[in-house]
Amino acid sequence: MKSKNVKYWIWLSKAIGFANKKIKALYELYNDISVFCLGGEKEWKLSGILTINDIERMKNIKTDAADFIIDRCDKLGYSIIAIDDDAYPKCLKAISNPPAVLYVWGNLPDVDNIRTVGIVGTRTASNYGLKNSFSFGYALSRYDITVISGGALGVDCASHKGALAANGVTVCVLGCGINYPYLMDNASMRESITLKGAVISEYPPDTPPMNYQFPARNRIIAALSDGVLIIESGKTSGSLITADFATDMGKKLFALLGNNNPENEGSNRRIKSGSAKPVTDFMDIIIAFSEQTDSQPDALEGIPLDEVEKIPVKSKIRKTKPNQSAKKLEEGYSAEDILDKDAPITLSKPKPVHREVSGLSQDAEKIYRYLTSAPVNVDKISQDTDLPVYRTLSALTELEICDLAVSMSGNRFALK
């Protein structure tokens, strides 16, 4: 049954902050949170939970702010699940700092009564990392395992898309408001997720992404997952925060075996320390959960790995010595590839070489004249040509078919 007190939980989140352990303390102390909220300053002090600063903020924030958020969600078609709702996941309620409310676009599966696996990793994933993220998402979905991830570039995106390709259920946990125009490359993916699964956030609509919100978001991914799989994680990767949460919560932790490259340093260390079980394919996870597999389909059959080529990743910046820059430019590298972010310099684009062509769409013609021999990321192409990402991708596909452009790693394109 939906909570009648949802607006009070929203109000409390705005007053004392998100990921605050006091939310759980208040939930456990009061059977009806409206008694606390409507009791005023005297009741707030008697609870023994709040600080003077908490109380001052509560005095300055009106419940009208919560009413506005509820109306906004109604207009956007989002549901709100409060911590005292029957639909609120018990596995999330069990952690020390559960969200007061979850904003949900789509249909949140009954995560307490199904098998769930979180897949996390770097946003600058290699082709190896993308293929494995996609394959694990696909194969686990074929075994009716729900995939939980964060909707980011690289590993997150690949795992979600793998689950979707298998017609499976996946949950995307965002670190901003659901409707905020965040990573628009993945906008259509998020919409597809809602057809069977859900896009969720503890942050109200229109909340922009802030750096500190993503580590907090990771505790939700870990809580909703029976186990967490790390794919390509550097020693300071945010995905290791999710791994730590999973370990603290007593969840199973897996890590894909990788080579000795820096992007695998974090996950490989977890394997060496014994905190993560090494895996090479999806069956390692299936076996770890002792799932019955006799009547299940061959989850590896027909995985559409061609889709991996279109999965966006965060651009990588290669640090090079200053005297190598000119040579790198001659070899066709872009300035983005070769610049040291701590010592930026201005570089000109290589001279474009275009052929006379006819029959192209207006968008394809515009992008063709923009492209040079230096690879450029789709986001930058979209920005510089003032075309939406979906039209940019469509035009680039047209240019590839016409043998006028070539796609490269990192979702980059150049003249062919």
Layout of SSEs?
Layout: H1 6-16, H2 21-29, H3 33-38, H4 40-46, H5 52-60, H6 64-76, E1 79-82, H7 90-93, E2 101-106, E3 116-121, H8 127-142, E4 146-149, H9 155-165, E5 170-173, H10 187-193, E6 198-201, H11 213-224, E7 227-231, H12 239-248, E8 252-256, H13 265-273, E9 277-279, H14 282-288, H15 325-330, H16 335-338, H17 362-370, E10 376-377, H18 378-385, H19 389-401, E11 405-408, E12 412-415
Parallel strand pairs: 3-4, 3-7, 4-5, 5-6, 7-8, 8-9
Antiparallel strand pairs: 1-2, 2-6, 10-12, 11-12
Helix pairs in contact: 1-5, 1-6, 8-9, 11-12, 17-19, 18-19
Task: Give a short summary of the structure.
The chain is an alpha/beta fold. It is built from 19 helices and twelve strands.
